[in-house]
Amino acid sequence: MPNRALIPLVRDKRRYSYAFVTGIWLIVTVYAVLHDQYLVRIAPEHFTVYHPPLWSLHNPSLLAAAWAFQAATYPGIMLGVGCVLAARAGPWPRVGVRLVFTVVPLLVGLTELAAASSGAWVWWRGQGLYPDWLYPDGRLPLLITQTIQLTCYAAGGLCSLGVVAYLLIRRWRAQHRRQSTEGAGS
Question: Who contacts 38 (Cβ-Cβ below 8 Å, separation ≥6)?
């Protein structure tokens, strides 16, 4: 027997689900490429020495962009699917595409704020923020870029969970408002 909570999602026009996933993946990918472009300028060896070669690229900026593209694929798709399910699956009122595409860039901005702030902290203090075994090298440029990357991954994951929770809470509240107005009208 099919899961009744997913039936409305299956009946939904697939173009909405594809738009969510594709659009969110694009936002995450563009962010990752831009993010790695400033990292490669701080410490090119972050990508040329401490990442394996990729696609026969030798230019540090192109290599950083390629790694960003590859690294953003799964998180972007997972966030997209999570947002589709949180915004549209189940019996509660659906959340529109516009709200999701307003909230996700805020998630990206908050993630980058946390990442850049951690890098600035390392630059100012001259030491890593995390345990030494998480750093490939003790030189300041690599301490900065690795701290930024680690913080970015952690903040991105937490903010993504926050976006999905926000969408679910918003739908839950809309359902309870609907029930209270229906109950008051009888």
Answer: none
CA proximity to 76, closest of 148, 11, 25: 25
SS3 132: helix
- This prediction has a pTM of 0.84
Q: Where are the domains of the chain?
A: 7-185
- pLDDT, residue 16, reads 76
Specify the DSSP class assigned to residue 128.
-
Half-sphere exposure of 126 (CA within 13 A, CB side): 0
**18 token code pair:** 């594809």
Question: With contact defined as beta carbons under 8 Å apart, do 87 and 172 qualify?
Answer: no
The helix (run of H) or strand (run of E) holding residue 13 is: none
Token pair recorded at residue 63: 């290599």
Q: Kindly give the residue spans of alpha helices, DSSP state H, lying in the chain.
A: 7-11, 14-42, 45-48, 60-88, 97-125, 140-185
pLDDT of residue 178: 82
- Residue 81, CA distances (Å) to 24, 66, 77, 84, 90 in order: 9, 23, 6, 5, 14
